[in-house]
Specification:
85 residues, mainly alpha, 0% strand
Length: 85
């Protein structure tokens, strides 16, 4: 059930997106560690050559999604308010 203040959609979205960013960063950090480990074992310099490109695209997509969610949330909040007479 909602508390006395009710459900705060913006706060929920910000926390959800922060959780997604933290999980994503953790996964990519683990992947980077595996790339370095595999690169050392096989004595290759380019074990994960496309890793930075994938990382950049992922963060750009996540940032775009975050901005879209926050923008949509603020638009929805603006529509809920009654205009002043």
């Amino acid at each position: 059930m909602a508390g006395p203040a009710g459900f705060d959609r913006e706060k929920f979205l910000l926390r959800a997106v922060a959780g997604i960013f933290i999980a994503q960063f953790g996964l990519y950090a683990a992947g980077l560690g595996v790339c370095f480990h595999v690169g050392r074992q096989q004595l290759r310099r380019a074990a994960c050559a496309s890793y930075p490109d994938h990382l950049q695209r992922t963060f750009e997509t996540a940032l775009g999604t975050t901005l879209a969610l926050l923008g949509g949330s603020s638009l929805a909040a603006g529509r809920r308010r009654d205009p002043d007479p």
